[in-house]
Amino acid sequence: MSTRKNDAQWMEKQQRWQIKVQKDGQRRTFYSSNPSRRGKVEAERKADHWLEVGSCDENIRFGSLWNDFLAEVQLTTSLSNYKSHELYGRKWLLPRLTKKRVAAITLQDWQNCLLDAYVSGLAKKTIKNIRGSITAFYRYAFKRGVPIVRPEFLDIPKDAPVKPKKILQPQDIKTLFSCDTVRVHNQEVEAFYIHAWRFLTVTALRRGELCGLCSSDLDNNILCVSRSINRFGEVTGGKNQNAERSFVLSQIALRILDDQSAMLKRLHIISPYLFPAEDGTRLNPNTLYDRWDTYRKQYGIETTLHGLRHTFISVVKSDMPGELVKLIAGHSTSMDTFGIYGHELDGDAARAAGMVDDVFRRLIK
């Protein structure tokens, strides 16, 4: 492996850092337009990486390398993750960068892709997701040894629209906990997923997490959330590294589980899942969403299925400390499954369950 013996120099005329290195008779020059000392480090890091790894892809075009990146994503991650990257690339990256050499892509090129999304009216969260795809592509290219600028300092426009979250209003909550039927073909029938929707509301679970719950995840009054089902029916570890958690269920949540169990028994449904599909198999989140859409429209409820989770966070935040909300909602550091019965579960988590009961008791009465 060749070792660099020189440092990057600031080129006043070009307003950039520059360093020239040589390996096996081949010379390369690396740059950084960042005027700070971080720019110097970045240029030297590029040079060091090339000296250590080298690359046969120094002239590869973005379109070609993006296809290779997608192939690896499809092979190593979930279909949902692949579909997201494919969509963002097809709509917002490829139109500008398909034929451009990856080594020639600048920070402004990346920023322009985000600005295209902003001008088209995309929500701030979606633009952040596009930036996430850019970062994931950078990591792939870097590991492959392709010279590429690190996508730092990419700005999300401050006035990019933020999609408002609609939560259940007090009357909506009373409706959800008192109306058990839905109209199908002009007949009122039992809403099979009524207990699932109520459980989402009082636990802040994501719908994929609820679909993945098994009877073995419940130990007395403690629920372990360790898996999630995505919209393609794949089992995943959850939305993020903090999604795996255990928490004490409130009394109202336990009553909902009892009602769910009684309904399954009455319908002669035997399943390893706490909230199965009507045939006892694993519930698909899309089905849960579609049935909720029918129910909410019938009763004049505007909240989406994911809004049930936001409802929980909104109604308890004034009564419950933020750290306890995170303990239940899965925004904090992951807890061990059923192994944590100490301070969190016996203390704060039990206190959080009591607070949930107090809040929803006032709302439902």
Automatic annotation (TrEMBL):
Pfam families named in the record: Phage_integrase
Molecular function GO terms recorded: DNA binding
Positions of the Tyr recombinase domain: 163-355
Keywords attached to this entry: DNA recombination, DNA-binding
Listed GO biological process terms: DNA integration; DNA recombination
Keyword DNA-binding tagged: yes
Record carries keyword DNA-binding: yes
Family: Belongs to the 'phage' integrase family.
Protein name from the UniProt record: Site-specific tyrosine recombinase XerC
Organism: uncultured Anaerotruncus sp
